[in-house]
Design goal:
Elements: H1 2-7, E1 12-15, E2 24-31, H2 43-46, H3 49-56, E3 59-64, H4 72-79, H5 87-98, E4 106-109, H6 131-137, H7 139-145, H8 150-155, E5 168-176, E6 179-180, E7 186-188, E8 191-200, E9 205-209, E10 219-223, E11 226-237, E12 245-246, H9 247-266, E13 275-288, E14 293-301, E15 306-307, E16 313-315, E17 322-324, E18 327-343, E19 351-360, E20 366-376, E21 381-394, H10 397-407, E22 429-446
Antiparallel strand pairs: 1-9, 1-12, 2-3, 2-11, 4-5, 5-8, 6-7, 8-9, 10-11, 13-18, 13-22, 14-16, 14-19, 15-18, 17-18, 19-20, 21-22
Keywords: Cell projection, Cilium biogenesis/degradation, Cytoplasm, Cytoskeleton
Pfam families: B9-C2 (PF07162)
Organism: Pieris macdunnoughi
Length: 467
């Protein structure tokens, strides 16, 4: 059992649906059920049944994200203002006296204390628990382990090192096994790390080491001198952020969607003779520099000599922004697949792709944040583009802002063709620059290859051999 407890710790990654705000971690700690807990001969006569049960019961501790709890050593140190040197020390001193905090056997280090290095910065304390996490974050190796082909792995390739270049916030929960004298002066310091929590603020996922467990698989408390006679288990409530999902589960869901889409794309149907078919896969990748929660509507207009049975209008999901290097970013990854038919021998005109960015506020009001347009030429290959958006606004700025604030504004563009040739339309409004949309697309063409048979005619008889 002891060997099992020594090797059952592993870290895990949870992908959050929203920014982390109200994480609540519950840690339950109790003495191990070993022979050392049995009372000595005669002691059971003095021990009540309630005391015996308390030995085997879990002590429950609840922690909020970045909540500071003090050990006896920290309580003594920061409780005396003469020991406070930095602003953080003074903040701890105020917290102890204003909120009447007491020393705890299970305490915390918060991000501002920089108690331990991040898991990829050092091969020191606790790093072995994170090796599985960073192996999972290496998407190419993960897909290779699943037996995926090179083309599928290329979909997940990135030039960024996810594990090393992101911004992190950390929190640590420890057990105080230090020795103190009768006056609570420190004799020997021994702090046992129980849980490490790392939040990636850029990509919004959380690392927990060791992972969430239950009473059937408790963890042993480790100290500098070995294993203590205590065991614990961990549970995390993500609160208002919604339930976190394991990174590997999300990857598997994404792989299933890609495999389904790949099967659909590989079922090519030969077009009729004299017809060329074009397959277009357009992805609305991301948007930036807008306001609020947004979604994007798209319209595809095709020339008269091109036919299509695909759905040419639609919208993305409603999305919240994440701050990336000081810039508000909305990531969509919304893919639009459609196909068009054209008679061979005719040079196809570009398709017209229109986008409208729309925001939704907490009152449910929908506002136009910007329009943009680009011509999609039917040229086989892979392309990408950053599209700048503009928003029509009434000439009277006060009326425009008032109408936009109270009722969400009004639709000033009745015909999207105005975005293509604005000089042909008489308008009583102006265009204001807003944000931008990043898109990329792939075009594949498909047609019959006509082979010309070679006919050989014999115009004269073959001469007989001379005898």
């Amino acid at each position: 059992m002891n060997d099992f407890l020594k090797n059952n710790k592993s870290s895990n990654i949870y992908w959050l649906k929203y920014p982390l705000q109200h994480l609540n971690l519950t840690l339950k700690l109790k003495a191990q059920e070993t022979i050392t807990l049995l009372p000595k001969f005669g002691e059971h006569l003095k021990q009540s049944e309630e005391d015996a049960q308390n030995v085997l019961q879990y002590q429950e501790y609840n922690f909020q994200w970045q909540e500071k709890l003090f050990s006896q050593y920290q309580f003594t140190k920061f409780g005396d203002i003469q020991n406070c040197v930095s602003e953080l020390d003074l903040a701890f001193n105020r917290s102890i006296h204003q909120f009447n905090k007491k020393p705890q056997k299970v305490f915390t280090y918060i991000n501002e204390e920089y108690a331990f290095p991040l898991p990829f910065e050092s091969k020191g304390y606790g790093n072995e628990f994170f090796s599985s996490c960073f192996k999972t974050l290496n998407l190419e190796d993960f897909l290779k382990d699943l037996g995926k082909g090179e083309s599928m792995r290329n979909l997940f390739k990135s030039d960024d090192d996810v594990a090393r270049e992101d911004e992190w916030r950390a929190m640590y929960i420890l057990y105080d096994n230090s020795k103190y004298d009768e006056d609570n002066n420190l004799i020997f310091q021994d702090e046992c790390l129980l849980v490490s929590i790392y939040h990636n603020t850029k990509y919004n996922y959380i690392m927990i080491s060791p992972d969430i467990n239950n009473e059937s698989n408790p963890y042993a408390v480790e100290s500098s001198s070995g294993y203590l006679d205590f065991e614990y288990f961990i549970n995390v409530d993500f609160g208002k952020t919604g339930c976190g999902e394991e990174f590997q589960v999300l990857l598997n869901k994404l792989l299933k969607k890609l495999e389904k889409k790949q099967k659909h794309l590989t079922k090519f149907v030969m077009p009729p003779l004299g017809t060329r078919k074009y397959y277009i896969s357009l992805e609305i990748e991301s948007a930036k520099d807008f306001d609020g929660d947004i979604y994007i509507e798209y319209h595809v207009k095709i020339p008269e000599n091109i036919e299509s049975v695909s759905l040419l209008t639609g919208r993305t999901h409603l999305n919240k922004f994440l701050i990336n290097e000081g810039i508000r970013m909305w990531t969509f990854g919304h893919i639009v697949d459609f196909e068009v038919d054209l008679t061979t021998g005719i040079d196809p005109l570009p398709l017209k792709i229109f986008f409208e960015v729309i925001s939704v506020d907490r009152w449910g009001r929908h506002r136009t944040e910007g329009y943009t347009y680009f011509p999609l030429a039917l040229i086989p290959g892979y392309f990408k583009k950053q599209l700048s958006c503009t928003r029509p606004e009434e000439l009277n700025e006060i009326d425009a802002e008032s109408r936009r604030f109270f009722v969400g504004g009004c639709h000033l563009i009745e015909d999207l063709e105005m975005l293509v040739k604005p000089q042909l339309y008489a308008t009583n409004f102006r265009f204001v620059s807003t944000g931008s949309i990043a898109v990329h697309w792939t075009v594949i063409s498909h047609s019959h290859s006509l082979a010309i048979p070679l006919k050989i005619s014999l115009l004269c008889p073959i001469p007989r051999a001379l005898t």
